[in-house]
Amino acid sequence: MKCGYVALIGRPNVGKSTLMNHLLGQKISITSRKPQTTRHRILGINTTETGQAIYVDTPGMHDNEKRALNRYLNRTAETTLVGVEVIVWLIDGLSWQPYDDLIFKKLEQAGLPVILAVNKVDKIKDRETLLAFFAEAQQRFAFEHIIPISALKKTNLQQLEKLVMELLPERDPIYPEDQITDRPERFLTAEIIREKLTRRLGDELPYSLTVEIERYEENPEITKIYAVIWVERSSQKSIVIGKQGEMLKKIGSDARLDIEKLIDQKVYLQLWVKIKQGWSDNDRALRSLGFND
Ligand code: GDP
Ligand code: K
Ligand code: MG
Questions:
Q1: 35 marked among binding-site residues
Q2: What integer pLDDT is reported at residue 59 of this predicted model?
Q3: What are the residue boundaries of the Era-type G domain, all occurrences included (predicted)?
């Protein structure tokens, strides 16, 4: 059997979390149009007949180290390269940015097999453009393995999966074959709520928003979840709550439906919005919210 760790690397919004979810056939890492949606390292375990690929989804690599949150994200992305056997590096099939060159240098130094996945090829309508982009990527980032994919439309994901397995070492599976992630349901629940907030409120809300599960009660008929949405200012609190509580209600019901799917049980979800000032700029506040792994 093949088995090992596979890092998903790339700048924000190239589609790392979408790829991981679609490789696993289940949503365990939240996604959105907003960069910095993924804040924590999360494992996605894919066991097939030929082996076990343990994908490590990471926050994107950032070029702005000014804020404490960004420093945390970069540390997480870099420490991911330690202890993995294969790297899948995603670039956006429509454009790259100078920052991709920096990532390229980092990956070259890592000395591990790298698969360059050119993502979002579904957006490229004509073949010529795609071929030209592909040829240029091949020259610029001269890795042995390069593959066009669409994480969203699931194009070429089987080929990618096959290539990953080939590059992994021979080893017995590390996780039981039915386990798909290392994160407890409580954590996934908080992430789902954060995804709904990000999707409904998009650019209106800063990155500073976070979700904390205060109580998670499993009963035979229903799971009761009490969560706090932390924001930085009272103006943000009003945005999250919305007129007569409408926004919070919608976010709560979006989240509840996804959580019910995840845990396959009825859910009662109660959301509170509270103010905690300046947390993203303050390392201690970050730690108190669990950003310490
Ligand atoms: P991450 O920041 O790298 O984890 O990126 P996400 O997985 O959160 O995706 C960022 C955005 O790109 C989301 O709106 C996705 O729906 C979109 N996206 C991801 N993969 C594809 C793809 O293959 N094609 C298209 N058209 N959009 C994609
Ligand atoms: K994103
Ligand atoms: Mg992500």
A1: no
A2: 74
A3: 2-170
| Paired sense of beta strands 266-275 and 222-231, if any | parallel
Q: How far, in Å, is the centroid of ligand 2 from the Cα of 122?
A: 18
**From the centroid of its chain, how far is CA 252?**
21
* Closest listed residue to residue 9, CA positions, set 62, 50, 67: 62
Is 14 annotated as a binding-site member? yes
Confidence of residue 196 (pLDDT cuts 50, 70, 90): very high
pLDDT, position 293: 46
Q: Pairing between strand 51-57 and 86-92? A: unpaired
Question: Which residues constitute the domain of residue 55?
Answer: 2-167
Are the C-beta atoms of 118 and 160 separated by less than 8 Å? no
Over its C-alpha atoms, the chain yields an Rg (Å, rounded) of 20
The pLDDT, as a whole number, for residue 279 is: 60
Q: Is 77 within the bounds of a domain? A: yes
How many domains in the chain? 2
CATH classification at residue 45: 3.40.50.300
Q: Whose CA is nearest to atom 26 of ligand 1?
A: 120
Residue 24 amino acid letter:
L
Residue 290 has pLDDT above 90, yes or no: no
User: Is 108 within the bounds of a domain?
Assistant: yes
Averaged pLDDT score across all residues of the chain: 87
Ligand 1 probe mutation, 11, 18, 36, most atoms within 8 A of CB:
18
Question: Quick check: 65 pLDDT over 60?
Answer: no
pLDDT for the residue numbered 211: 93
